[in-house]
Inverse folding.
């Protein structure tokens, strides 16, 4: 392998080429990478890297530099005279692959300058410059601040590249929402286990006898709804084809089926607690508020590097790690050998064992489907931590107190989503509601499920949306990384 650190400027007849598919296969399947230890969290000047080639610093920062010299790296011929003067010892790739790399390291948005994408994030960027009609030059730059994400382990990046493809997991099977293939994959790759589990779990609820038949094949919006309602919550979200996967259309329809109002107004803003009306009047289905301000003083640690939590960790040893990647439907769910559990609420919050905790100050803006804590000064990382806390709490509560009812309501909502006529869907929901022995509790569980879907949609929306790369037909264009 070339010693890149000491390499001298030279011209070459061929060049290394890294395709998105090769990068993802390496991260997902290569046994050498899968057994690598995650690097320690770097801060300050250590983030800048020691190499002259910025692409080498990028691969090093992601802990994937061992891909060099493997079969995953192609060699492509390149006219030496076509190399720009400032592209010394470059790595060739595509705009799509660069977008994924940039998202993995911390960029969370795409801006466009003369139809050229720029990948931007907190203190970090991959800037593209056009060099001819089919070629770009790109440079990786970051400031010596703090990293954007804690997680650079193989497990973190594995889930991140799956989510970037629009793919979710349930018991190690894939639900694929990938836009260009979704209609086919809904039949071929849709998880059999999630449908089987919904059938078996809902069977213990008396209202299941009035539910419509629930086959394996799913229409597009039905598959998206099934994924948001019952698949494993996404653990590491860094890029996602948001627009292409019809997430907002699905969430707005779920809100319509929850409210039974055929003309849900997009501009309505509701508090999270309004999704579960009067839940606090019952036991064990109680409701307890924890404020965002209270959580800001607790060292909750999610996937995103949070300067607030980092300081709390340094000052006292009582951090609380958040763990997504569960589904309320899977009773045997485990992540890294640990059982599914609720967030570790500190004792001084007075959280009672059976009461569902809702984070007050979270409001749901249906027009854009975003979560906005009432304190707008809270940082991006902390907002993601709030969302993760709430999702984990909802999954725990549903698993403990409403699993069979949640399975029935999931089947009902997905079936309503797949009806061709709105009135037909409303009649179906009303029919099941009238046959229900405990309609109030079922309605509240339905609200919790829809809230879960909205919160997951918000996590996806907080990541880089790759959809515009395909809409503008630039995904496959060649990039030379400096």
């Amino acid at each position: 392998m070339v010693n890149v650190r000491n390499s001298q400027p030279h011209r070459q007849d061929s060049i290394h080429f890294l395709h998105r598919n090769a990068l993802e296969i390496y991260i997902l399947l290569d046994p050498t990478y899968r057994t690598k230890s995650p690097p320690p969290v770097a801060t300050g000047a250590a983030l800048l890297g020691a190499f002259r080639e910025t692409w080498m610093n990028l691969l090093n920062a992601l802990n994937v530099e061992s891909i060099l010299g493997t079969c995953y790296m192609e060699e492509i011929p390149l006219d030496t005279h076509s190399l720009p003067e400032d592209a010394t010892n470059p790595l060739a790739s595509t705009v799509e692959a660069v977008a994924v790399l940039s998202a993995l390291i911390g960029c969370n948005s795409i801006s466009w300058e003369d139809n050229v994408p720029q990948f931007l994030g907190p203190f970090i960027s991959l800037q593209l410059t056009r060099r001819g009609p089919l070629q770009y030059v790109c440079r990786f730059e970051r400031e010596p601040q703090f990293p954007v994400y804690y997680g650079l382990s193989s497990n973190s990046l594995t889930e991140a590249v799956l989510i970037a493809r629009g793919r979710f997991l349930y018991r190690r099977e894939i639900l694929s929402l990938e836009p260009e293939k979704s209609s086919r994959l809904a039949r071929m790759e849709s998880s059999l286990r999630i449908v089987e589990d919904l059938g078996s779990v809902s069977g213990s609820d008396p209202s299941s006898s009035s539910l419509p038949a629930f086959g394996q094949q799913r229409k597009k919006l039905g598959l998206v709804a099934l994924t948001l309602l019952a698949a494993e919550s996404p653990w590491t979200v860094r890029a996602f084809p948001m627009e292409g996967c019809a997430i907002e259309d699905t969430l707005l329809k779920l809100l319509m089926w929850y409210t039974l109002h055929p003309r849900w107004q997009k501009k309505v803003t509701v508090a999270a607690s309004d999704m579960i009306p009067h839940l606090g009047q019952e036991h064990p289905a109680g409701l307890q508020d924890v404020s965002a301000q209270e959580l800001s003083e607790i060292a909750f640690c999610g996937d995103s590097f949070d300067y607030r939590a980092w300081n709390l960790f340094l000052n006292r040893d009582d951090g609380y790690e958040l763990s997504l990647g569960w589904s309320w439907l899977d009773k045997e769910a485990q992540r890294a050998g640990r059982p599914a559990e609720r967030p570790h609420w500190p004792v001084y919050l007075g959280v009672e064992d059976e009461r569902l905790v809702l984070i007050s100050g979270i409001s749901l803006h249906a027009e854009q489907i975003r979560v906005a804590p009432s304190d707008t000064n809270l940082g991006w990382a902390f907002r993601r931590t709030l969302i993760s806390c709430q999702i984990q709490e909802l999954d725990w509560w549903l698993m403990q107190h409403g699993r069979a009812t949640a399975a029935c309501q999931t089947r009902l909502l997905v079936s309503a989503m797949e009806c061709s006529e709105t009135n037909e869907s409303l009649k179906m929901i009303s029919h099941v509601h009238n046959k229900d022995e405990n309609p109030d509790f079922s309605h509240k569980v339905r609200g919790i499920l829809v809230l879960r879907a909205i919160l997951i949609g918000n996590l996806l929306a907080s990541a880089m949306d790759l959809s515009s790369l395909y809409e503008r037909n630039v995904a496959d264009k060649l990039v030379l990384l400096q």
Q: What stands out?
A: The chain has two domains: 13-147+466-481, 171-462. Residues 13-147+466-481 form one domain.
